[in-house]
Amino acid sequence: MNRPSDRGLKRGPWLLALLTLLAGLLSPVAHAAEPKRVLIIHSFGRDFAPYNIVATTLRTDLTQLMRESVALYESSLDLELGSSPENERLFLDYLVRRNHGAPPDLVIAIANPAMLFCLRYRDQLFPGRPLLVTGLDRRRLETVKLPPGDRAVTVTLDFPAVARTILKLRPETDTLALVYGRSQIEQFWGKAIERELAPFADRLRVLPAGDLNLEQMRQRVAALPPRSAVFYYMFAVSNDGALHEDERALPAIRESSNAPVYGIFSDQLGRGIVGGPLVDSRNMGVVTAKLAASMLKGELTGDKVEVPMPVPAPSFDWRELRRWDIPESRLPPGAEVRFRPPSVWEENRQLILAGAAVVLLQAVLIAALLFQRSRRRHAEKEAIGMSGRLLTAHEDERRRLARELHDDLTQRLARLAVDAGRLERTAGADAAAMRVDLAHLSEDVHAMSYRLHPSVLDDLGLVEALRAECDRVAQSGDLQVDVEAHGVPRSVPAEASLCLFRVAQEAMSNATRHGQASAVTVLLSSRDRGLQLAVADNGSGFDPAQSRERASLGLASMRERVRLLHGVLDIESTPGRGTTVIAWVPTST
Question: Which of 52, 54, 106, 249 meets the CB 3.0–4.6 Å disulfide criterion with 244?
Answer without folding.
Answer: 249
